[in-house]
Structure formats: structure tokens, C-alpha cells
Amino acid sequence: MLLAASGAWAAYDANGVALGASERDVRNAFPSAYCKPLEWQSRAADRRCDDAEVSFGGVSGRITFYLKKDAVQAFDLRFETRHLPRLKEVLQKRYGPPTAEANDLGKDGGRIYKARWESGGDSAVLVAPLQEKRSQLSVSRGNFSEEIYRVR
Length: 152
Known about the structure:
The protein is of the alpha+beta class. Helices cover 15% and strands 49% of the residues. Strands 5-6-7-8-12-11-10-9 form an 8-stranded antiparallel beta sheet. β9 (100-105) and β10 form a beta hairpin. It is globular and about 40 Å long. Mean pLDDT is 88; it is low at 1-10.
């Protein structure tokens, strides 16, 4: 997975597939991705592409791209929490220091590592419940995270 940052604008991408890329770009970079219409109505996306085995900076995981009008609006990478130190290192090299970073306590008392990068209307959010097996990096454009599951 190649991530790039240049000046005040970071191109958040997954293996060269940046926010705004087409479904064709997703399929070229991830030939085994399964693309289909979104199962629910949303203003944030109308299609999704899932791939079960990807490498993000040397960390293996599963990825889902969300597209609207043939443009990637967001992607989520799910990975094993034990790989968090490696992923943090890769993200900080590529994006620079996070805009915000915290170690919070969850409802069950477990620690949760959170980091956020922002560039223009795009953002990358890393959430890692340290006592759980899986963690997630979510990259999105605009108000995607508020709109994707909003019931209309």
C-alpha cells in the first residue's frame, strides 16, 4: 500500500487507489475485489467493492471501497490489532503526525488508541481497541461517515 503526502494536501489512497478514483481503478489495483450495488439507500455511496486480502504498508487486512457516481468516497481497512505499531509507523511517515491522537478508555475499561489526519475535506481515522483482535482505518471524503448509514 502506498500512501503519499505532499505539502498541505495528502492523497489518501490504498495501493494507488485514491479518494475520487473510479471503480475501474479499484478493479485494476485489486483484481479479486467484488463490486456490487450498496444494499441500502445512502447519499454517501451507491456501490461498494470488497477485497479479502490486501497489504497496507506491509500489514495484511481486508478492505472495502465505497463509491458514488463512479468515484471512491471512502475506504475502510480492517486489520489485526497486533499490527498497530507497524501501521502507525507507516501512516506517520506518509501523512506526518496526526492532527489528533489519544489513548481513551472504552466502556469496558479497555484502552482504545485513536488517531486522525485531516487534509481539506478528506480525513483518515485510525481506531484500535487494544484488547480486541481487530482494528480499523477509515478514510473518507466530506461528511461520508455521517451519511453512509443515515436512514432516509
